[in-house]
Specification:
The structure holds four protein chains of four kinds. Chain B is an alpha/beta fold. Chain B has two domains: 167 residues, Response regulator (Rossmann fold, 3-Layer(aba) Sandwich); 132 residues, Response regulator (Rossmann fold), CATH 3.40.50. Chain B contains twelve helices and 14 strands. In chain B, α2 links the parallel β2 and β3. In chain B, α3 runs parallel beside α4, α5 packs across α6 and α7 crosses α8. By secondary structure, chain C is an alpha/beta fold. Chain C folds into four domains: 157 residues, Rossmann fold (3-Layer(aba) Sandwich), CATH 3.40.50; 69 residues, no CATH class; 156 residues, Rossmann fold (3-Layer(aba) Sandwich); 71 residues, no CATH class. A six-stranded mixed beta sheet of chain C has the order 6-9-10-3-11-12, with helices on both faces. Chain C has a six-stranded mixed beta sheet with strand order 18-21-22-15-23-24, sandwiched between helices. In chain C, strands 2-1-4-5 form a four-stranded antiparallel beta sheet, with helices on one face. In chain C, β21, α15 and β22 form a beta-alpha-beta unit. The longest helix of chain C is centred in the C-terminal third of the chain and has 16 residues. In chain C, 53% of the residues are buried. The N terminus of chain C is likely disordered. Classes of the chains: A mainly alpha, B alpha/beta, C alpha/beta, D mainly alpha. At the A-D interface, α4, α5, α8, α10 and α12 of A face α5, α10 and α12 of D.
């Protein structure tokens, strides 16, 4: 279903502006969508577990700052180190959620403020420029001349996580946790570990999205990714993953992220005025969710 | 069927494909040759103005100025707004540059310093004519690029100092003031605050009691000012705000605290409401920055370059990155600025650099 | 009283309160109702018996408008009616107390009683709490309950909540001028025996001004409280029994279509236990609601713990699975001291737990039979860290066959199975690993019909025979006595006494009850 | 908690647990207030307490609205957009510098009605299209912002309506009119929650929606109604912001969506629904405002303020949760 929404949107944009459907233009969309895809992919795991992660965008912002700060000293090593640090921060939030028994909404809401503050302090409230971007530049390359490397990497991340989840007991564990945490726990499922793991992967994804952003912007900034939070959550839900947990998949979020990107970028480019752009965005996103949600799997809509 | 094969297959195909595709390139294939300077017919030029949003007076007047210029040359301006969202700005620019860029002219307000570099590099690669305003890192220079014609800004240090001095004068050279900072992560906010600090050095009697950010926002300024007024009470003689929106918020806070008229307020930008306030004496001073002109001039410079009336290589180095003229507006001269006047002649290709106040330092 | 000419009166008595003729309902692949007939006379308590899948719940749902039948007629006091919603059914005077309690936990008892039919208690959308309290009190008085109408429902005991349900369902009198028909679906399945007695007293009282349809899987109860019993089998009514003088076995035979074995609890399969060292040995275990619990269970032994509501037996059971925290005491498995900080540790020690709340805690409804079955013992379907679909399919199919679980496929969502089959999947979850040493069964037969119960009992015997130690929190004293080798009686958080319970030397329920209260 | 036995005792535990749960946030409020009061003499001044209460007015009204939605177990992110639209509406309908309108109270009423309409829209999307409220309200928020931008049309509407302006300036018993309006909203909200079918059903929907259906209650109209009522509160909040700022801003509602949810949750209203209420949320609002104000007063660097706030919010919730955490309790 999210695919139908995606195709429908492309067709509509093409009708509005025939120039929109060009190879270059679609390539640009996929490149643009890459950080959002990665961000949404990580957070999807948490949503599948029945939680939510509001800190991904702030964590990505912080990661851009850290990467920009560390690139001169660590060079190529900076990328994996930043991803690892982001994963660790995610895991700390997961631990707080699991051990202190605070709802994930609150933990990550607090995390969002704290990480933003840390980013501001670490960066001195300013942009950190990357002078030598040779070690992150590879993300700006094009595979086979057409596919942007960042889009290919985003696809790889989604495929990798989805494959690992599907091929291991993780799928059962995550779904069980999302559908019915108490039943999962009584079945001896490592619910706490699964949740912490989901937060950890979500953190790592935020870190990787940050690497993509830095390679695109040649700098890191304490608020750089902040505005990607709601689009990322929208991408997950538009993809048809139930926000109550259990039902959904990373592939759906991939399609959802593309839909959201088309809305964010496509509408103004085909010439929709700013005020109507927002109205259309609101209407389309609601309709897209209505189309993609599998009602048979979700009994009560809250 | 719940099979683990499918994603695995995708993964394998993907890695195989990656292996098969021997080389990676820096460019998407099917790239066109960059536009030669000035080969465009006026009717083929595509004018784009990009600002944060249409919902504040300053940027709305910017877009209106752009529309007016476009109309004067028989074109329309494509308005883009990114809602103060850096990533969205980049996304729009890269989408725009993925279209037809041959005669593209962009007049862009980068969200922050860091956003300028990717816009410039993208435009340079695609051969689109670009004028940026307000934000750019110091070491990124238009002179190093072919189609980045110019960067226009106002001298924030100077305006911060000018209003600081005006404030000091109006409170009689001594007393406590509070400062409302802008979005901490922008050059404008930092420069303007640096200007205040310079002013404080010269006016030893003036004491900075407190400084807080209100993120250039009228609503936040209202709350922060209320709190600071309570904290420092009658010690507060003046309020320095990094823009007029915050100054107007501070005015409301003063009114609500019953201190209307007892505390001097200064701001920057000369938005109409602030000019009116200066005119009727509730505000002490503001500094002009002319949104209507900025919206028009960026497109005008680009249009002249695209149509060949202006050769980029001929533009004086000082005009590739410059401070625009600005004026301190006080009660004495406020009437002059009450109706922003933009002279169509300013946009003639011969006059586009008329308002240069000096090269960027 | 006149009788409609086209209809033959079912008896010589007045028009029946409710009559069902030839009701048919198809679900994809299943014929849930295949021409059911049913007569509920005025002022009688009619029992409805039948195995799971006999069509009981579909019939009941049709009677309260939750299911629209494909064919057949429903007559209320002689007139044919179409019931399309709960409200319409209520307007005809038919109301139901649902199997899962249908109260809103965070509202007061009064609000729950009047929910959906507030009447004078709400004037133009505004609550009048005094009126509400009075109206609710009237309802509670009818059934002689002493509950405070303004108490929050989630602070009431289970039995009290059941009373609130009945008081609530009696509100339908307000909607119809005639005596109501009250349907009670498995009202006793989670009540303790004392509470059941109170409930039965209420049911007999109801008969004064209403007709009652009583559904229970406990045949002795059905015979105790009902005037007449209609037996369903395969979506059809297969017989009607007057309860006076009837015995459970007779009903049972009608339900399953042949004479059931006398050996309901498979006592023949019980083997004498001989072990030098107990499999599970608990000493001085204390927690929030229990103290100084000593408990030994040998391999192959079934030990039942009995006690009233609040005796702490559930918490002991949960403590042994690492759910409920303990403050003192030690637990040994096969002589080795273990600690149980969480359920993972318990699973690793070879302990399995079947919770009482199957639908909430026992299974993950939307997930497939296969996934539910392999949820705990992941190793059984994996090679290294990876799930091997073939291995899983083989394993799951083997256990589906072995426990004769009736499911369309192994990928069917477990929530679409009947209760008995769901419970078998939950049990299988602990067995597929082959490393189970101790099973904790918390009301394993709650809500199951005789056939399914019998299969669960047989399974328990088989497991015991294979050397699994079992702790059983039984649904009824009879079940405890029937199944256990030994019974621990708990009272007020402590072990009151321990009673041997060998095959052939069973204690009487009375002996146990004495110690329980 | 001590060892207890027996049925009656276990029932007492539940009640005591409930009481403890409800006591947490007020206790936290008092403790945080005392800490700041000890640290900063300005903080404990009467003027500052007035300031805190005045500053809480708008957030309190928004939180009133959102509380009803949260009680149902839904979520509402539409406040930002609805407030923007309502702010523009009211500023264009009362006396202002853009047109000759001077509808006074009628203009204010119109803005509130517009808020209702947006709430109604959210409710319809939830009920008819079955879109989860998170997304439905996010969409409606975008629509509201778009409508506001349309009305803005490039020129800031400044209000000159004396009555509306006086709301923010004139005081009664030391507090601004806006604060009294907020107090009235809290009272109204509490009455709705306690004494109307709408409020009680909203509570019940959060507790056990399916039971209401089984009892023959048609839930959907009530859901829509709850969102509509919430929309009315947002509409009023937009008017109040306009009164404070003296102008209609598209960004009038910026940040109120998450602040209001934070406040409600800190006050003890559960995101899963069925618990908490207006009074809980009011405590939460005060808690958030005391924090924001106190941090400025004790001179915490603006960089760190957000972080410290986040930390304290997490700590406050943790402190409220820890005493009753059970091993098998589900936390989402």
């Amino acid at each position: 279903m999210p695919l139908i929404a995606l195709v429908g949107l492309v067709v509509a944009l093409t009708v509005a502006d025939p120039d929109f459907l060009t190879l270059r233009s679609l390539t640009a969309v996929s490149r643009t969508a890459a950080p959002l895809i990665v961000l949404a992919a990580g957070a999807t795991l948490i949503v599948l577990c029945g939680g939510i992660d509001l800190s991904i965008a702030a964590l990505a912002s912080l990661s851009t700052v850290l990467l920009a700060l560390w690139l001169p000293d660590l060079g190529g090593l900076a990328t994996p180190v930043v991803i690892a640090v982001a994963a660790a921060i995610g895991a700390v939030q997961g631990l707080a959620h699991v051990l202190l028994r605070i709802p994930s909404f609150i933990v990550t809401l607090g995390g969002m403020s704290i990480l933003s503050a840390v980013a501001l302090v670490v960066s001195g409230a300013g942009t950190v420029r990357v002078v030598d971007d040779s070690t992150v530049k590879w993300l700006e390359l094009y595979v086979a001349g057409y596919v942007p490397m960042s889009a290919a990497m985003a696809l790889l991340v989604v495929a990798l996580i989805a494959a690992v989840v599907k091929a291991t007991p993780l799928h059962s564990w995550i779904s069980a946790t999302g559908y019915s945490e108490s039943a999962a726990r009584l079945a001896g499922t490592p619910v706490d570990l699964v949740k912490i793991g989901a937060f950890c992967v979500s953190g790592a994804c935020a870190g990787f999205a940050a690497v993509m952003l830095v390679s695109r912007q040649f700098s890191g900034g304490p608020t750089m990714a902040d505005n990607l939070l709601l689009p990322a959550v929208a991408a997950i839900v538009v993809g048809g993953t139930a926000i109550t947990g259990g039902h959904g998949s990373l592939w759906r979020s991939l399609a959802g992220a593309l839909v959201v990107t088309l809305l964010r970028v496509g509408l103004p480019i085909v010439g929709v005025p700013s005020a109507y752009e927002q109205i259309l965005y609101g209407v389309i996103i609601v309709v897209a969710v209505a189309l993609t949600l599998d009602w048979s799997k979700v009994s009560i809509i809250k | 069927m719940r099979i683990a094969i499918r994603p695995a297959a995708v993964l394998m195909t993907l890695s195989l494909a990656a292996a098969a595709l021997a080389g990676c390139s820096e460019e998407a294939a099917g790239d066109k040759d960059p536009a030669g300077a000035g080969a465009c017919k006026p009717a083929d030029v595509k004018l784009v103005g990009q600002v944060r949003n249409e919902s504040n007076p300053y940027e709305a007047s910017w877009l209106a100025g752009g529309d007016a210029f476009a109309k004067s040359v028989g074109l329309t301006q494509q308005r883009l707004t990114y809602g103060g969202d850096s990533t969205k700005q980049q996304e729009q620019i890269s989408q725009l540059l993925a279209g037809d860029t041959k005669c593209l002219v962009m007049n862009v307000l980068p969200n922050g310093d860091s956003d300028t570099a990717p816009i410039v590099k993208g435009a340079d690669k695609a051969g689109a004519f670009l004028v940026t305003q307000w934000n750019k890192p110091a070491d990124l220079k238009p002179a190093d690029y072919k189609t980045w014609i110019s960067h226009i800004t106002y001298n924030g240090v100077e305006s911060g100092k000018q209003i600081g001095d005006a404030l000091a004068k109006s409170i009689g050279g001594s007393g406590g003031i509070i400062a409302l900072q802008g979005v901490l992560d922008t050059a404008a906010a930092k420069d303007r605050f640096a200007g205040l600090q310079a002013s404080l050095k010269e006016n030893a009697g003036v004491q900075l009691l407190d400084q807080q950010t209100a993120n250039f926002s009228r609503a936040e300024a209202l709350t922060v000012t209320k709190t600071l007024l309570t904290k420092h009470g009658d010690k507060v003689k003046g309020i320095w705000a990094a823009n007029d929106d915050m100054a107007l918020g501070a005015l409301e806070a003063l009114q609500q605290a019953g201190k209307s008229g007892k505390v001097a307020v200064v701001g920057i930008d000369a938005v109409p409401d602030a000019v009116t306030a200066v005119q009727n004496g509730t505000m002490t001073a503001t500094v002009s920055s002319d949104g209507t002109w900025q919206g028009g001039i960026g497109l005008a410079i680009g249009f002249c370059a695209a149509t060949g009336k202006l050769q980029v290589k001929d533009i004086a180095a000082d005009n590739r990155a410059f401070y625009a003229e600005q004026f301190l507006i006080t009660k004495d001269n406020a009437a002059q600025f009450a109706q922003p006047k933009t002279d169509p002649a300013d946009f003639d290709c011969a006059n586009v650099f008329k308002r240069v106040a000096g090269p960027l330092k | 009283m006149s009788v409609p000419a086209e209809r033959e009166p079912a008896t010589s008595a007045p028009v029946p309160a409710l009559e069902v003729r030839g009701l048919v309902k198809h679900y994809p692949g299943v014929k849930a109702l295949d021409g059911v007939d049913l007569v509920v006379r005025q002022h009688e308590v009619l029992g409805l018996a039948g195995e799971n899948g006999a069509g009981k719940s579909t019939l009941l749902k049709a009677l309260v408008g939750l299911v629209t039948p494909d064919a057949g007629e429903i007559y209320v006091r002689g007139g044919a009616v179409k019931l399309r919603s709960v409200v319409e059914a209520a307007n005809h005077g038919i109301g139901m107390v649902f199997q899962e309690q249908s109260l809103v936990p965070n509202l007061t008892a009064a609000e729950n009683i009047l929910l959906g039919s507030e009447g004078a208690a709400v004037r133009r959308g505004v609550y009048r709490w005094d009126v509400m309290r009075r109206l609710a009190q009237e309802q509670l008085d009818k059934i002689g309950s002493k509950i405070d109408p303004l108490a929050r429902t989630d602070t009431l005991s289970f039995a009290d909540r059941q009373m609130v349900e009945i008081a609530k369902v009696l509100r339908i009198e307000q909607r119809s001028q005639h005596p109501p028909v009250i349907i009670l679906d498995e009202p006793t399945s989670v009540l303790e025996s004392k509470e059941i007695d109170t409930l039965f007293a209420q049911i007999r009282r109801l008969r004064e001004f209403a007709s009652v349809v009583f559904v229970s899987h406990r045949l002795d109860e059905v015979l105790d409280v009902c005037d007449r019993v209609t037996v369903l089998r395969g979506g059809q009514s297969v017989g009607e029994v007057a309860t006076a003088g009837a015995v459970p076995r007779e009903l049972h035979r009608m339900m399953i279509g042949s004479t059931g074995s006398d050996d309901h609890y498979h006592e023949n399969a019980a083997e004498p236990v001989e072990a030098e060292q107990p499999r599970l040995s608990v000493r001085g275990l204390s927690g929030k609601s229990f103290r100084d619990i000593d408990l030994d269970v040998a391999a192959g032994e079934i030990v039942a713990i009995v006690g009233v509501h609040g005796s702490g037996r559930e918490d002991v059971c949960r403590a042994l699975f690492g759910i409920e925290p303990t403050s003192a005491g030690e637990i040994r498995m096969d002589g080795k001291k273990i600690s149980l900080p969480n359920t993972r540790a318990a699973c690793a020690a070879g302990i399995g737990y079947v919770p009482a709340e199957r639908k909430i805690e026992g299974m993950v409804g939307p997930m497939s039979v296969a996934e539910n079955m392999t949820l705990t013992k992941q190793k059984a379907r994996c090679a290294g860290p990876f799930v091997v679909p073939k291995k899983q399919a083989g394993l799951v199919d083997r256990w589906i066959e072995r426990l004769s679980i009736r499911t369309p496929t192994r990928d069917t969502a477990i929530q679409r199975l009947s209760g008995g089959n769901q419970q078998k999947v939950v049990l299988a979850r602990w067995l597929i690993g082959g490393d189970i040493r101790l099973l904790l069964l918390d009301h394993p037969t709650r809500g199951l019909d005789i056939g399914a119960r019998s299969e669960v009992y047989r399974l328990m015997r088989e497991l015991a025979a294979s050397g699994v130690a079992t702790v059983l929190l039984a649904d009824s004293l009879e079940e405890a006595i029937g199944m256990a080798d030994r019974i621990l009686v708990m009272n007020d958080g402590r072990v009151a006494t321990e009673v041997g319970c060998p095959s052939g030397g069973k204690p009487s329920p009375l002996d146990l009850v004495k110690e329980m209260v | 908690m001590t060892v207890t036995t027996g049925v009656a005792a276990s029932r007492r535990i539940i009640r005591r647990g409930a009481a403890f749960r409800d006591a947490g946030p007020p206790v936290a409020l008092v403790v945080i207030f005392l800490i700041f009061a000890a640290l900063s003499p300005q903080f404990r001044s009467i003027a500052n307490v007035q300031n805190i209460v005045d500053a809480a007015a708008v957030l309190a009204v928004v939180t009133c609205g959102i509380t009803f939605v949260l009680m149902m177990g839904s979520i509402d992110l539409s406040s930002a957009g609805v407030m923007g639209a309502s702010a523009l509406t009211v500023s264009l309908l009362v006396a202002n510098n853009r047109n000759d309108n001077d509808f006074g109270l009628a203009g204010i009423a119109a803005a509130i009605v517009l808020g209702c309409a947006f709430g109604f829209l959210s409710g319809l999307a939830l009920v008819l299209l079955k879109v989860p409220s998170f997304m439905a309200t996010l969409g409606v928020s975008a629509i509201g912002l778009g409508v506001a931008t349309l009305m803005f049309a490039g020129v800031q509407p400044n209000i000159s309506d004396a009555m509306l302006k006086s709301w923010a300036i004139d005081r009664f018993l030391g507090l601004s009119y806006l604060t009294w309006i907020a107090a009235a909203c809290i009272l109204a909200g509490w009455l709705i929650q306690r004494y109307t079918r709408l409020g009680r059903y909203a509570f019940a929907i959060g507790g056990a929606e399916e039971v209401l259906t089984l009892s023959g209650v048609r839930v959907k109209p009530y859901k829509v109604a709850v969102f509509t009522v919430a929309g009315a509160f947002y509409g009023l909040a937009g008017v109040m912001v306009t009164s404070q700022l003296g102008a209609g801003l598209v960004q009038a509602g910026n940040g109120y969506d998450f602040s209001a949810i934070t406040a409600a949750v800190v006050g003890g209203t559960l995101l899963t629904g069925g618990r908490g209420g207006i009074l809980h949320s009011t405590v939460g609002v005060l808690l958030v405002m005391v924090l924001t104000n106190g941090l400025v007063q004790i001179g915490v660097s603006p960089y760190w303020q957000g972080g410290v706030e986040g930390l304290i919010v997490v700590a406050a919730v943790a402190a409220a949760v820890i005493p009753q955490r059970r091993r098998n309790q589900v936390v989402k």
